[in-house]
Amino acid sequence: MSHKIAIAGVAGRMGQSLVRTCITEDGCEVVGGTERPGSGELDKDIGVLAGIQPLNIKAGLSAAEVAKEADIWIDFTAPTSTLAAMTALDLTGVRAIIIGTTGFNEAEEAALREFSKRFAIVKAGNFSLGVNLVTALVEQAAARLGDDWDIEILETHHRRKVDAPSGTALMLGEAAANGRKAPLKDLQSPPYDGITGERETGKIGFSVRRAGGVIGDHEVMFGSDDELVSLRHTALDRNIFARGALRAGQWAIQQPPGFYSMRDVLGL
Ligand code: NAD
């Protein structure tokens, strides 16, 4: 059965990737997309915006209008926009909401959770299936390998990235800290620079590289005196986030209302 999908922020990087990915996936039909008030992309064909053939669907302003035939809403926009859309979706037939938007503050996060009484919501800071699998494996490895195994996280990204370590590196660090039953802030080593002294037992270190067009490369290394174990993920295409979000949508539509993560989707 084909699920009907509406996409928020359809002219954005993720919005376009979702349109391109959706039309090639089985069981997935795009029925609408929104853009922000004042956007020059409003009323343009969402297929053309995504760099593919016209789909005869125009980017619209109203979430309620765009989603009137949809059962899944996918939102990679901005926190205030995502929250406003959820209020508007209340009177539609949408049952599952996939949220990739990042940067919600605590109050916004609490407001989001309120909507999970009505919708099956999947929210993730990283929708890549591979990253979520590696995250679960890192937590298990950190729990099973004792404190005498040092944990080092290395990430590489393109030269345009402005923050470090990446959100995904921090997510991997949190998983490792979780395995060690402590918050990351207690275990994170300050960046190595100058005379650092010896490495402290049980700490989690981060290293960062920035070069060229690397989409994203993350490696978590566990090291004892006698052996090294590495878990690594390399992103080869930005469409991994869209693919993960679509898979989450197909899973969520079969769930009762609730607040879910990618780990629930993948059964990890
Ligand atoms: P982008 O700026 O390219 O796209 C965002 C789009 O949303 C824009 O086209 C913008 O006009 C639109 N928009 C803003 N307000 C809107 C509104 N009220 N109604 C409709 N559309 C609106 O950004 P992006 O790179 O696509 O990222 C978008 C979000 O997704 C960011 O929060 C980013 O951090 C996040 N992201 C998450 C993942 C993940 O796996 N969870 C992956 C990539 C990006």
Automatic annotation (TrEMBL):
Residue ranges annotated for the Dihydrodipicolinate reductase C-terminal domain, each copy included: 130-266
- Its main subcellular localisation, reduced to a broad class, is cytoplasm
Q: Which InterPro entries match?
A: DapB_C, DapB_N, DapB_N_CS, DHDPR_bac, NAD(P)-bd_dom_sf
User: Per its UniProt record, what HAMAP family does this chain match?
Assistant: DapB
Q: Which GO terms describe its molecular function?
A: 4-hydroxy-tetrahydrodipicolinate reductase
Cellular compartments annotated: Cytoplasm
Q: What is this protein called?
A: 4-hydroxy-tetrahydrodipicolinate reductase
Annotated function: Catalyzes the conversion of 4-hydroxy-tetrahydrodipicolinate (HTPA) to tetrahydrodipicolinate.
Every Dihydrodipicolinate reductase N-terminal domain range? 4-127
The reaction(s) this protein catalyses: (S)-2,3,4,5-tetrahydrodipicolinate + NAD(+) + H2O = (2S,4S)-4-hydroxy-2,3,4,5-tetrahydrodipicolinate + NADH + H(+); (S)-2,3,4,5-tetrahydrodipicolinate + NADP(+) + H2O = (2S,4S)-4-hydroxy-2,3,4,5-tetrahydrodipicolinate + NADPH + H(+)
The pathway is: Amino-acid biosynthesis; L-lysine biosynthesis via DAP pathway; (S)-tetrahydrodipicolinate from L-aspartate: step 4/4
List residues binding NADP(+).
36
Q: Where does NAD(+) bind?
A: 9-14, 35, 100-102, 124-127
Query: Which keywords label this protein?
Result: Amino-acid biosynthesis, Cytoplasm, Diaminopimelate biosynthesis, Lysine biosynthesis, NAD, NADP, Oxidoreductase
UniProt similarity note:
Belongs to the DapB family.
Give the enzyme's main class according to its UniProt record, as a single word.
oxidoreductase
Assembly notes: Homotetramer.
* Residues annotated as the enzyme's active site: 157 (proton donor/acceptor), 161 (proton donor)
